[in-house]
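FW: tagging you since you asked about this chain on Friday. Here's the raw sequence from the shared folder, copied in full. Didn't touch anything.
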Amino acid sequence: MSITLGFDVYGTLIDTHGIIGELEKIIGAETAEAARFSQIWREKQLEYTFRRGLMKQYQNFGVCTREALDYTAAFLNHNFSDQQKQTLSSAYSTLPAFGDVIAGLTAAKDAGLNLYAFSNGQAEAVHTVLSNAGIREYFADVVSVDEVGTFKPDPAVYRHFVRTAKAQLENTWLISSNGFDVIGAVAAGMKAVWVQRSNAVVFDPWEYQPTLIVDSIRDLHRKIDRWQIGEGKS
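HL: got it, structure written out here
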């Protein structure tokens, strides 16, 4: 049967910490301080999506990203101008792909798997960042939570992905570096691969665990294939 893969975008395919170089220029700081800013910004960005999802007060991912930027600047005592904020927000559209991404996507597509980008981001923004990173061509389409009006890990967004991709639930996999995303997909009945690029990252000790764990997506298609034929090796 045909296998459909839904790739999370920010943090899985696209390196959100690719913003550090731009932060170094704007705040005039060493890499460590810019990295701290990037980490807090990313954490707040996700926190705001969780909170808005729970509150049923949806605003799109771009709004959450800008609000998280404002919070981080205030928390770290940086008084950015409107132009500097715009520069940083715009830099989100030119974030780089991780180094293993092109090889992994090429192999998965050549193996006949159906590839989709599946993101908290608005479709237009996702098309743009994937195009700028040179990887848009690998995907049949972009599926955005914006079409549902809530965020991962709401079960509604995973059901929306399966419907939109015209996939069979039992043959649909989420590919994500974000533990909350993997848990959400598994809880919704999908299979999921957790991309653990660093051993320092720990998965949540919940009852929902990844179907597979990989340290890169280079050999993703082979590991899924082995699992499908019953070897179940990660």
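FW: The CA atoms of residues 110 and 221 lie 9 Å apart.
HL: agreed, and The mean pLDDT is 95.
FW: great, closing this out.
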